[in-house]
Amino acid sequence: MKIIFIALVALLALYLAVGLLLYIKQRSMLYFPTSSVEHPFETMTVENEGEKINVIITNTGQKKALIYFGGNAEAVASGATVFAKELPDYTTYLVEYRGYGKSTGKTNEAGLFSDAIAIYEKIKPTHSSISIFGRSLGTGIASYIASLKKVDKLVLITPYDSIEQVAKDTYPIFPISLLLTDKYNSIDRVPKIKAKTIILIAQNDTIVPKKYAYSLAKKFPEHQVEVHEIKGSHHNDIADTNEYSQILKRFFYGR
Predict the structure, then answer these.
(1) Phi, psi at residue 162, to the nearest 5°?
(2) 75 — alpha (psi -120 to 50), left (phi > 0) or beta?
(3) CB 237: neighbour CB atoms within 10 A?
(4) DSSP state, 211?
(5) In what order do the strands lie in the sheet with 90-95?
(6) Rounded to whole angstroms, how far apart are CA atoms 81 and 78?
(7) How many CA atoms lie within 13 A of 61 on its CB side?
(8) Strand 64-69 relative to strand 51-58: parallel, antiparallel, unpaired?
(9) How many Cβ atoms from other residues are within 10 Å of residue 232's Cβ?
């Protein structure tokens, strides 16, 4: 009995230690800040809550605007050329998250949400419409702003229903709802989203398995959302496929 008791105590201690580690390290497991990348495009700085958020701008001066929120390890400047070429009549604002690139601060859900609203409000007076584009982690921010502000089109690439649900499935023996601070519960925001929405899913996504994207998609009214699964694609290469480009061009331009 003594041996069993010692074993149970050891298991409990291990469980508590791992749980504590998950709590302490959770943001370093979610965010992977990237360094600044050289590029030829204009930039603007949005000051919010004492932080300076760097935003890269393509095709300045267009009536329509697009705000881009990237993945958790993405240097958004690397994709600026693609936006400039593929969406020539949209001024695109690519956001470097707090702690990423030239932006100051520490990355967290509340801060990224606040910055997103600040950027939206800053550009709104100069554009006839604003669309939102989110990829992976950025889909949570895109869904948030689309649930609160007037948005023309909403693009969600390899999205999730909530980071909380993904974490629960990954660590089922831990009380994730209590441990997790940044939950990104996009699925709860869907009823407040009125924008025409498109969701693109990678068939072989092992980083954010596609079941989470379909869970999110099912929450939208059928008339409001398009859902496309790109065959043969993975989480990080979905944008390299011809189908991806063609679908987005049809969504934005009807061709």
Answers:
(1) -165, 145
(2) beta
(3) 13
(4) H
(5) 42-48, 51-58, 90-95, 64-69, 129-135, 153-157, 196-202, 225-230
(6) 7
(7) 0
(8) unpaired
(9) 11
pLDDT (tens digit per residue) in 5-43: 777 777 888 888 887 888 899 999 999 999 988 999 999
Instruction: Please tell me the class of the 31-253 domain.
Output: alpha beta
Considering only CA atoms, which of 49, 157, 158 is closest in space to residue 103?
49
Asked if residues 66 and 132 have their Cβ atoms less than 8 Å apart, the reply is yes
CA-closest candidate to residue 31, choices 110, 118, 127, 106: 106
Contact at 8 Å (CB) between 59 and 91?
yes
* The pairing of beta strand 129-135 with beta strand 153-157: parallel
Query: Rounded to whole angstroms, how far apart are CA atoms 191 and 49?
Result: 29
At 48, the amino acid letter reads N
pLDDT for 255 equals 58
Mean pLDDT confidence for 120-142: 98
pLDDT value at 135 more than 70: yes
pLDDT of 254 above 90: no
To the nearest 5 percent, what fractions of the chain are helix, strand and coil? 45, 20, 35
The predicted pLDDT at position 19 comes to 79
pLDDT tens string 179-193: 999 999 999 999 999
Structure confidence by residue, pLDDT tens digits, 169-178: 999 999 999 9
